[in-house]
């Protein structure tokens, strides 16, 4: 029996990846006088991957990676106003209103009281806490857990600390890499609600285990009642 349902935040409860894509487009436009778009994209992604251990995930880490990439690609010729523009792009992302995905609020309301609900997400703690507060969804969650990575070790630690057996745990999220595969490896349950945009780092290839996929969160309460 599933007693705990944990929800991912970004691109599961509210829009996130589309904001990164629009910011990347503005970043490409800023650096277009120096390099072509494909090279800018490739070098930015390389910088992000290199910086994951230093800065982790989130908008602030993304801002730093954009600045570092701009300095490298322009060989230090980027101007002060251009650096300021990059900072403004990141600050705009931090200030964006939280846009809930369809059915997110209704789904949580329907499940409240039926089982324990957690928010389990990765990223910058301050940013994720701010988005949760602005989302209006905070009251639905018994636990809010923000981690630096979502892998098998992290999930095991989160569940062990709270005395929850994997067999009683369901993770709901959009990322096969972060929300599905590590939980299945532990013997837990995982369900995907796909999002139209997927960051390259979160994509997986090859043969995958079977897991349930729902078109939107509004279908989750009925799915839980299915034998």
Task: Give me some keywords for this one.
elongated, 227 residues, Rossmann fold, five-stranded parallel beta sheet, alpha/beta, 5 strands
Report the major sheet.
5 strands, parallel
Instruction: Give the strand line-up of the largest sheet.
Output: 3-2-1-4-5
Helix content: 40-55%
Classify the fold: give the CATH topology of the largest domain: Rossmann fold
CATH class of the largest domain, anyone?
A: Alpha Beta
Low-confidence stretches: none
Measured on Cα atoms, how large is the radius of gyration?
Answer: 19 Å
What amount of the residues lies in strands?
5-15%
**Shape label:** elongated
Please name the CATH architecture of the largest domain.
3-Layer(aba) Sandwich
**What order do the helices and strands follow?**
EHHHHHEHEHEHEH
Work out the helix count.
9
Mean pLDDT, all residues: 95
Class by helix and strand content?
alpha/beta
Please give the number of β-strands.
5
In whole angstroms, the N-to-C terminal distance is 11 Å
**What's the CATH H-level superfamily name of the largest domain?**
HAD superfamily/HAD-like
Number of domains: 2
Which secondary structure elements does this structure contain, and how are they paired or packed?
Elements: E1 4-7, H1 17-31, H2 37-55, H3 59-73, H4 80-95, H5 104-111, E2 116-122, H6 125-135, E3 143-147, H7 152-162, E4 169-173, H8 176-186, E5 189-192, H9 220-225
Parallel strand pairs: 1-2, 1-4, 2-3, 4-5
Helix pairs in contact: 1-4, 2-3, 3-4, 7-8
């Amino acid at each position: 029996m599933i007693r705990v349902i944990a929800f991912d935040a970004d691109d599961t409860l509210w829009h996130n990846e589309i904001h990164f894509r629009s910011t990347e487009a503005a970043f490409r436009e800023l650096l277009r006088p120096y390099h072509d778009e494909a090279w800018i994209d490739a070098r930015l992604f390389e910088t992000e991957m290199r910086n994951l251990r230093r800065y982790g995930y989130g908008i602030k880490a993304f801002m730093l990676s954009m600045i570092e990439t701009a300095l490298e690609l322009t060989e230090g010729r980027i101007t002060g106003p251009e650096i300021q523009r990059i900072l403004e792009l990141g600050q705009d992302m931090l200030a964006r209103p939280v846009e809930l995905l369809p059915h997110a609020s209704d789904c949580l309301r329907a499940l409240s009281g039926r089982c324990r609900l957690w928010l389990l997400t990765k990223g910058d703690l301050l940013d994720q806490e701010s988005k949760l507060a602005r989302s209006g969804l905070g009251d639905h969650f018994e636990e809010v857990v923000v981690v630096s990575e979502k892998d098998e070790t992290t999930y095991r630690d989160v569940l062990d600390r709270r005395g929850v057996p994997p067999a009683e745990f369901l993770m709901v999220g959009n990322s096969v890499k972060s929300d599905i595969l590590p939980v299945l490896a532990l013997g837990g349950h995982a369900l995907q609600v796909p999002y139209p945009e997927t960051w390259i780092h979160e994509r997986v290839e090859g043969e995958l285990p079977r897991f349930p996929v729902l078109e939107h969160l509004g279908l989750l309460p009925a799915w839980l009642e299915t034998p």
